[in-house]
Amino acid sequence: MMRILRLYAPSLIGDHTLCYVSTNRDGNVCINDVEIQVLWARAGDPLDGEERAGAMTVVLPREAELKEGDFLSVGKDGDTLLRWQDGRFRVCRAGFLGVSEKAEIWPAIRTAVLTVSDKGSRGEREDTAGPELEHLAFMQGCVTEDKKIVPDDPEEICAAVMAWAEAGISLVLTTGGTGLSQRDNTPEALLSIADKTVPGFGEMMRIETLKYTERSFLTRSVAIITGRTLAVAFPGSRRGVEQCFGAIAGGLRHAVETLTGKASECGGHKH
After folding, report:
1. Average pLDDT for residues 188-202, to the nearest whole number?
2. pLDDT digit string (tens) for 239-255?
3. Of 37, 184, 217, 248, whose CB is crowded by the most CB atoms within 10 A?
4. Residues of CATH 2.40.33 domain(s) within the chain?
5. Measured between alpha carbons, how far is 126 from 120 in angstroms, rounded to an integer?
6. What is the average pLDDT score of the chain?
């Protein structure tokens, strides 16, 4: 954890204590409704020069290491989320930047999304849960490198998850197959390849979704570890994905970083 040290924009009368960063309809970054480029600097870096003359510069502590593809999470749980790409910030979640605001650097988590559905695999049903899961994960700094739709077949579920694990994917998110019907096989498939189970994920989903439905205890969502990959099973509906993801989002990044040996950074840099 660190704090933003300075917000500096020569074209906007120098130093600022608070600004709102967003994206306009053309996809360009805006600061307080003024289209502008957002750059970054570490403490002590010179802020003059033509490349910064028309930009807002976010000054972070000297020890901060922001690499290509990293996310800058500002505020509680990434209230404002920016991603560093091609030498500039891209807005993922619009919000405020303020001097002394708490911030973290989130390295991107390599992620894959698996939709488990007989009808979806045959093209008979549009997959809305998978894309929703991908979007929600991205807002936690998880970048989906691959996605797939398979039928409710344990062997195909296992094969997909194991292939991703062998490829170095750190997080696999599945949707579908967690109900009570004869074709709901996702928990059993994941448990069959598990080195460890992480029961808290399913427990939190069932507890937190009680506020939405009294039948929340019927979901059989689970989470397992295979190798150095965390796999988490979500319900098959878009609404179920949204509700259950909100229940576990707060601990997801730390879980992956603990598993992959990066927990000392806790999703960013402590300063």
Report:
1. 97
2. 999 999 999 999 999 99
3. 248
4. 2-106
5. 6
6. 91
Which whole-number Å values give the CA distances from 77 to 103, 139, 162, 193, 217, in the listed order?
A: 10, 10, 30, 32, 27
Contacts of 129 (CB under 8 A, 6+ apart): 115, 175, 176, 234, 235, 236, 237, 238, 240, 241
Q: How many CB atoms lie within 10 A of CB 65?
A: 11
Q: How many CB atoms lie within 10 A of CB 191?
A: 12
Q: In DSSP terms, which residues pair with 172 in a beta bridge? A: 112, 231
Match domain 109-259 to its CATH number in 3.40.980.10, 3.30.470.20, 3.90.1720.10, 3.40.50.10490: 3.40.980.10
| 4 within 8 A of 103, measured Cβ to Cβ | yes
For residues 5 and 263, give the distance between their C-alpha atoms in angstroms, rounded to a whole number: 25
Fold classification of 2-106 is M1 Pyruvate Kinase; Domain 3 (2.40.33)
The CA distance from 85 to 72, in Å, is 11
Question: pLDDT per residue over 63-89, tens digit each?
Answer: 999 999 999 999 987 799 999 999 899
